[in-house]
Amino acid sequence: xxxxxxxxxxxxxxxxxxxxxxxxxxxxxxxxxxxxxxxxxxxxxxxxxxxxxxxxxxxxxxxxxxxxxxxxxxxxxxxxxxxxxxxxxxxxxxxxxxxxxxxxxxxxxxxxxxxxxxxxxxxxxxxxxxxxxxxxxxxxxxxxxxxxxxxxxxxxxxxxxxxxxxxxxxxxxxxxxxxxxxxxxxxxxxxxxxxxxxxxxxxxxxxxxxxxxxxxxxxxxxxxxxxxxxxxxxxxxxxxxxxxxxxxxxxxxxxxxxxxxxxxxxxxxxxxxxxxxxxxxxxxxxxxxxxxxxxxxxxxxxxxxxxxxxxxxxxxxxxxxxxxxxxxxxxxxxxxxxxxxxxxxxxxxxxxxxxxxxxxxxxxxxxxxxxxxxxxxxxxxxxxxxxxxxxxxxxxxxxxxxxxxxxxxxxxxxxxxxxxxxxxxxxxxxxxxxxxxxxxxxxxxxxxxxxxxxxxxxxxxxxxxxxxxxxxxxxxxxxxxxxxxxxxxxxxxxxxxxxxxxxxxxxxxxxxxxxxxxxxxxxxxxxxxxxxxxxxxxxxxxxxxxxxxxxxxxxxxxxxxxxxxxxxxxxxxxxxxxxxxxxxxxxxxxxxxxxxxxxxxxxxxxxxxxxxxxxxxxxxxxxxxxxxxxxxxxxxxxxxxxxxxxxxxxxxxxxxxxxxxxxxxxxxxxxxxxxxxxxxxxxxxxxxxxxx
Length: 692
Prior knowledge:
It contains 19 helices and 25 strands. By secondary structure, the chain is of the alpha+beta class. The protein has a six-stranded mixed beta sheet with strand order 14-15-16-21-22-25, with helices on both faces. It has a four-stranded antiparallel beta sheet with strand order 1-12-3-9. Helix 4 runs antiparallel to helix 5 (89-98) and helix 15 packs parallel to helix 17. This is Tail specific protease domain-containing protein.
């Protein structure tokens, strides 16, 4: 068993553990819903790293990186992210290529962690074989709370036992029997207790260790917040995010030692050890042994790589365009309709090794207020009991039906106005982005028609114009995309003055710059992409900017960032981060981008323009891997000549969470409304900027 004292080392680097001889360690756990992390590791480490697999993955990743807009910026990001982003991915790939690994799993973990260090939720290398094949859990999610004196501390979530009893009902008894007798073998006795030590060290040692590897957001504060449990409005209801302490994408940790405050015993505290357990994920394919696990989960499928859209039977083309890709599991958005895949609405969405949570927020914490008409999927509207504050809880900028979603947002906001709302809270906690034009549309209907919302409610953008991208654009200009199916086709883009691009010639127009001492090239500036909207916009804004507040736990990215940044910087809308650490500058959003995509989409562009045999083109993947990239990068608002990605997104207020309101959306909204809209000073005085 992994020693408690090296728990942090286990999450910081792949471990090499002794395993008992077994002819097939995967057969040992096959068909079992729950397993020990050590047994899952033995199974995953039983696959040797074949040279052809290693070389294939590295070549694909290396040759896809030229389409990732941020790769040279990420070698050393400018302030305020200079201490957070400083990773040379090409150098990492050289190191990985020269490194020997005992298993394919260890190779993947090194690749996964290297890409996580760029702290970019669009850019990553994921595997359906190893990432969240099993999800490793502990039934004790943590929260960061502020007490009556204003002091912060780490606590076991007050609702921990409720979540565990419902979500882990078939495994709770395993954990309960291991609890010290002082807790009477009840998880309920631990809920709400203050955590004094994690593995013998102050809790924030573990928080910081997680912040160094979890990735996804440039802001260190947001990566700290990822350690703790939180909530989100999901497509089917309210969801509970266990946080990175209690939910792990890889089976690398066996147990944890906790010291908790417990006044009922001599000394006032109790130290105990509790094991993690790994649960076979619902999206993973069943197996009976190592070979079947590999065949069903690890090898490339017919959706792993791209296709030539002009050399595929019509029925297969329709299937390819309408079915979700393997990366959909890792996209931080709900499933969308096949018709929306076919229409290819542009998306900007985070990826993560842990899929969206399917754990339910306990009923007593979920909003009990009546929903306003217009509520649909990830968007739910409420009127608070003050009869003046409306709330839009928005868990994603994607929903199953794009057209219905856009109309629902309008009807919901209009419903709030009809109900008497004079001010608006938009809660985007754990919103990983989604449709770009939904973000622009929401900005437009809240604020109304003005130069900051029409024709461009979002950010101008650019994309990398490397040699292979130039060749794709040239082939399209010569007629290689007659049905206008490809993203490099200029018919879907406008120029800096928001005029349609010409369909002939090289629209990609290579503009050379130097980034961190490296020559790079980008396209001309691209303008708005959403007008005319699919829906009829109101003639006037529905809420005043000074009566609108955006609330989150900082985990707002991609299209959520596009919305929040333009609302904050163009309109002056105030931003509130809930539950951040005192004294740490909180950021209201993270990864910005402009449009995210993946290897298989780029591969389709390459194959459809008959460039697959070019020396710069990546080969087909042999394994069930996904590579995500930022394809377009948005220009900034404060500095319009540089990417918004590296400009400040400091929140106006760091709002404290207490035991009375933590993970209770309505209680949080009421507290924020009372503090912000009535110009009262926050209950606790740790704010990032001036009190509002």
